Amino acid sequence: MLGLLTASLPIDLAITGVVAAVGALRPPAPRPQSDTPRTVLLSGGKMTKSVALARAFHRAGHRVVLVEPKRYRWTGHRFSNCVDAFHVVPPPDHPEYVAALAAIVDAEGVDVYVPVSSPLSSRYEAEAAQGITDRCEVVHVDADTIATLDDKDAFAESAESIGLTVPETHRITDPEQVVDFDFDAHPDRSYVLKSIPYDPVHRLDMTKLPMSTPKETAEHVRTLPISDEQPWILQEFVEGQEYCTHGTVRDGVLQVWACCRSSASQLNYEMVERPDIEKWVRTYVESLGLTGQVSFDFIVDHDGRAVAIECNPRTHSAITMFYDHPDLALAYLDDGVETLVPLAESRPTYWWHMELWRMITDPRRAPERIREIRRGREALLDPHDPLPFLLVPHLQIASLLAGALVRGTEWLKIDINIGKLVEPAGD
C-alpha cells in the first residue's frame, strides 16, 4: 500500500497544482460574514467531516481550532488554510482528556465546542463537555442521551415509546439466547445480530438468522464475542433500500438536514428527498429536545414504510454535501435558522483515492466510477484549500501505514474518508 501511494504521488501532485492554480485565478464566492466572529473548537481532526466544518466556519468569519490525539497528529487537515490552530490532546478515554480540552479552551479563547466524534469518542466527548460548559457553548448531545442513542436496543425502545417505527429488537448477552430463540414464532421473518458497542470487524456481518439448520445457527453465534460486557441485539432484518441521514439540532429544532441512499461501506453521498424519513427524525429529536449532531440509518421496506434501524449521535460524512452552502456555520451556531439542505446545484461528493482503488481492484467497474467522478465533487479537494487532498493520503495515511508496519499491527482496510486504518478493536 505504501508503494501504491508512492506511485500515485505524481498524479496527486499534478491534480493539487492544477486545482490550486485555478483557485488562485478564481476568487472564492463571497459568503455572509458573522456579525459576532467566534472561536470554534473542533475535535476529530483526522476525518473529512472535520475539515468540511472547518471550511464552513472559517469562511463565515470564525476562527477554527482543531484537535486530535498523538496517533493522528500528522493529519493532513492541520495544514488546511481554514484551520487557525492545531493541538495534540490525549485520547478521549484518557483521564487527562477533559483537562487538556479545558486548557485549550482557555488558551485559545474558545467560544463554541463542536465535537466531530468517532464511534468510540462520542460518549467521552459528551462527558468532557460537561467539564467545559462553564467556559464555552457545546453543540453535542448530552452524555445520558448518548448512552440511549448509542445503545441500539435502548434507542429502538425509546423510538417505539413515542409511536415511531423500528424493527423487532431483542437484547442479547449470551449466545445461548439466540440458540434458544423461537424463530418459528415468525417464520416469515429473518434476523441479524449487531454488536451494541462499536465493532469495526463484525459491523458488516449481515448473516441472516436462522441459518439452514439449528446446528449452523448455533455454531455461527458461538463464534461471536457476545457477553454481559459486550451485549448485542438480535434484530428483525428489514429488506429494502437503506438510507443514511445527518441532522444538526438545536433545542429539538432540526437546522441542518441531509439524506442519502446508503450501503454497507459508504463512499458516495448524494441528497435525496424522503419527507417520511425527515418527519420521523423531526418527531424524534423534538420529543427529546436534542442539541447536537445525530445521524440515523433507515430502511424503506417494500411496502414503503420507513423503519429506523439505529442512531449514531455524531457528525455524518454526508455533511460534505454542504461544501458550497453559505449558511452552514450559521445553522450550527445560532437558533432560529430555517432547515438547511444541500443546494440544488451541489454535486454529489466522493473521494478520489477510494474511486481509484475501486478501479484498480475491479477494472470492469472503471467506466461507472469515471462517470461518478465526472458528475461529482472530490470531498477533500478544494481550489482555495488544496493541501488536505495531497497530505491526507501522502502524510496522514502513509504515516499510519508506516507505524503499523513497524509495530506489526493488523489492519483491515484504509478509509481516506475517516482518515484511518480500520483495525480490530479500533476507534
Q: Which key terms come to mind for this protein?
A:
D-amino Acid Aminotransferase, Chain A, domain 1; Rossmann fold; Dna Ligase, domain 1; alpha/beta; 427 residues; globular; 5-stranded parallel β-sheet
Helical coverage, percent range: 25-40%
What is the spatial order of strands in the main beta sheet?
3-2-1-4-5
**Overall radius of gyration:** 22 Å
Largest sheet: 5 strands, parallel
Q: How many DSSP-defined strands?
A: 16
- Let me know the average pLDDT: 94
Shape category: globular
Q: Regarding CATH, which class of the domain at 146-150 and 240-346?
A: Alpha Beta
Structural class: alpha/beta
What's the CATH topology name of the domain at 146-150 and 240-346?
A: D-amino Acid Aminotransferase, Chain A, domain 1
Q: Tell me the name of the CATH homologous superfamily of the domain at 146-150 and 240-346.
A: ATP-grasp fold, B domain
Strand content: 15-25%
Fold blueprint:
Layout: H1 2-25, E1 39-42, H2 48-59, E2 63-69, E3 85-89, H3 97-108, E4 112-114, H4 122-130, E5 137-138, H5 143-150, H6 152-161, E6 169-172, H7 175-179, E7 191-195, H8 214-221, E8 232-236, E9 240-250, E10 253-261, H9 275-288, E11 292-301, E12 306-312, H10 328-333, E13 349-350, H11 352-361, H12 366-375, E14 377-378, H13 387-407, E15 413-415, E16 420-422
Parallel strand pairs: 1-2, 1-4, 2-3, 4-5, 13-14
Antiparallel strand pairs: 6-8, 7-8, 9-10, 9-11, 11-12, 15-16
